[in-house]
Amino acid sequence: MPAQKFNARDCEFQIEDYLNPGTWVAFRTATAGSGKGGINTFSLSHEYETTDTTTFGSDGRAESQNMQEGKGMTLEGFKLKDPSTGALDPAMALAEAQAARLGDESLCGFRFAAPGDTTWEVWAESTWQLGDQGGGNNDKTGWAVTVTRSGPSTTAAKP
User: Fold this and answer.
1) Residue range 7-23, pLDDT digits in tens
2) Quick one: DSSP state of residue 34?
3) What are phi and psi of 110, to 5 degrees?
């Protein structure tokens, strides 16, 4: 079958529960997690650090090489809260708690997959920073988090 487009809403995202390593909690999207989804937008970013390798022999043309590569992912959507208990959606609660951790404790796992993938892309160590939350008069409350990979990516088989 030839390559084809896929729905962003069908991608899956999970945070590792730092209190129970090896336990993964799904962010609710259109088809992942339980119940209606809160995450409705994601953006995978790449950044590079290069070094200048220009010499006199470069004849006035800049030369450089990539020396470092980084990745990050921003998840955005609606804040999900249980109206009876006030409890946040489990993945959002973990992300908010993780964002408040510092030093060595600021690192935890994150993994994601596109529809049809048989493996997760795993960031065994990543940092978490909350984004803006809020909304206007006729809006549902927004929620966002940025996950930044620390170290290499790995993969893991999807069940």
Assistant:
1) 898 999 999 999 999 99
2) S
3) -145, 140
